[in-house]
Design brief:
Layout: E1 12-15, E2 18-21, E3 49-54, E4 89-96, H1 109-117, H2 137-145, E5 154-157, E6 166-168, E7 171-172, H3 173-176, E8 181-183, E9 186-187, H4 194-202, H5 207-220, H6 229-237, H7 241-270, H8 278-302, E10 308-312, H9 331-335, H10 341-366, E11 369-370, E12 373-374, E13 379-384, E14 400-403, E15 414-423, H11 424-434
Length: 453
């Protein structure tokens, strides 16, 4: 029997074309006592994770921004779905992305908002191959700590879009459909297909074996877990009762996601578009897609397959309608509200739908015990947009949340108002410190945002 005591954090359950990472188990540390928090509040035995969730077209800011600052802040309409998580959030007002402004380049605010969001750099205005912006914060971190995990980073999206050609007033589509930039001219295209993401999370390094594994699963209606069953049983026999329960719960979660992907694939094949009422068809598919993506991100963090991710819930400039929540007009169209009260109400409804999905994500993270707390405690999740008011295309006073405690290095449960037009990249510098990937500068940063401590 294999020796699983004091397991390495990178232990995998292996089988044909399969490598299933494991959650943090007591057997992975010398003792439960080693998980005790140290004096600075950071749990050194546990990895820290960093993610960025992007939502498009700004917000109806009066329904987003709390009036009060500090711990007794109010939660306006858009933030209300996050009430159960208020003690896990820092709502930040005053951050800006100056490089998303035209600065002499004319129209194209949606492309610039996306391109600048994680880079803090001015995108070169071009629809050709000579794209240029800057290295994004997630990739700065991945370059330093990405070798500690199976995937250096994970890029996902609910919107598939072109990666070349003109999308916004002479800006390349590459700017509008990507957040992550490995170099100043190399975007990392996000994956939209849940199946492909699942295979990346749980497949092994052999392309041939992975293809064979997937073929057998499809042909014989097998689960990916069937290929690691022997390894899993051997591991379980060597674990204590608490770890056995954790392992069972984790493997059940993996299987449930696999089944949801299978159901969605069958649904797409068997139910033609237009066979259901539009509000049911669109509502079920989009919300299910969002939650499936969030659940896979939870598994990726829980199993330490990656510690860094970006998620585009919808690309900036998206004109998706939301008939399932009573908004039949396109999102981008009504974001140009011209102070029409009804349009602003509808925008707030879309914004609230997005935060309700984010609340689901936070609930899933908090439901997973880790060390003396939960998985969210060891995360830093930025939720926001590169535009505040969509009508004005403004890029200051951005709607930004940071969820999680960063391993005890962030003080949540408050509304933090910083100096007006503070570069958002200052927040990123502080996050990089907490990831062990310190940088002197990113984009237009002027210093670290010490106030989040």
């Amino acid at each position: 029997m294999k020796e699983f005591r004091n397991m390495n954090r990178r232990t995998f359950l292996r089988g044909l074309g399969t490598a299933v990472g494991l959650p943090m188990l007591e057997a992975m540390v010398p003792s439960v006592g080693a998980l005790a928090s140290v004096a600075d509040g950071a749990n050194k035995a546990l990895p820290r994770r960093m993610a960025f969730v992007y939502v498009p077209n700004g917000k109806n800011m009066p329904d987003w921004t709390p009036v009060a600052t500090g711990r007794n802040y109010d939660m306006p309409l858009i933030l209300e779905p996050l009430k159960a998580h208020r003690q896990d959030l820092v709502v930040i007002t005053g951050l800006a992305h100056d490089k998303a402004n035209p600065n002499g380049d004319g129209a194209g605010d949606h492309a610039r908002a996306s391109a600048t969001f994680l880079t803090g750099c001015q995108a070169r205005k071009t629809a050709g191959a000579d794209i240029k912006v800057g290295v994004s914060v997630d990739q700065i971190a991945a370059a330093v700590v990405g070798d500690q995990t199976k995937l250096p980073s994970l890029e996902i999206s609910c919107d598939r879009g072109p990666q070349a050609g003109s999308c916004d007033s002479g800006y390349s589509c590459a700017y509008q459909f990507n957040l992550s930039w490995k170099s100043e001219n190399m975007p990392l295209n996000p994956e939209v297909d849940p199946r492909q993401i699942f295979e990346r999370l749980f497949g092994n390094e052999s392309v041939q074996e992975s293809v064979e594994s997937r073929t057998r699963r499809h042909l014989y209606q097998k689960s990916i877990l069937d290929f690691v069953l022997a390894d899993a049983q051997e591991l379980k026999a060597s674990l204590g009762s608490t770890d056995q329960r954790k392992l069972d719960e984790y493997l059940t979660a993996v299987r449930e996601i696999e089944q949801r992907i299978e159901r969605s694939e069958r649904f797409n094949i068997q139910v033609p578009r237009g066979a259901m009422p539009p509000e049911m068809e669109e509502g079920a598919s989009y919300e299910d897609h969002i939650r499936l993506m969030y659940d896979m991100l939870v598994l990726a963090f829980q199993s330490d397959v990656t510690r860094i991710s970006t998620f585009i819930m919808a690309h900036d400039g998206s004109n998706r309608p939301y008939p399932f929540i009573g908004v039949s007009d396109g999102h981008h169209d009504i974001s140009h509200h011209r102070n029409d009260a009804e349009k602003k109400r509808l925008i707030a409804q879309i914004n609230r739908f997005h935060t309700s999905q984010f609340a689901y994500f936070l609930s899933r993270l908090k439901a997973i015990p880790e060390g003396d707390g939960n998985l969210l405690d060891n995360c830093m999740i930025v939720y926001g947009c590169g535009i505040s008011d969509g009508n004005a295309h403004s890029h200051h006073n951005l709607p930004v949340l940071v969820a999680g405690r960063g391993g005890g290095t962030i003080t949540p449960g408050r509304h933090l108002r910083v100096a007006d037009r503070t570069p958002m990249t200052n927040l990123y510098l502080s996050m990089l410190d907490r990831m062990g990937a310190s940088a002197d500068r990113i984009g237009d940063s002027t210093g670290k945002l010490e106030e989040i401590a």
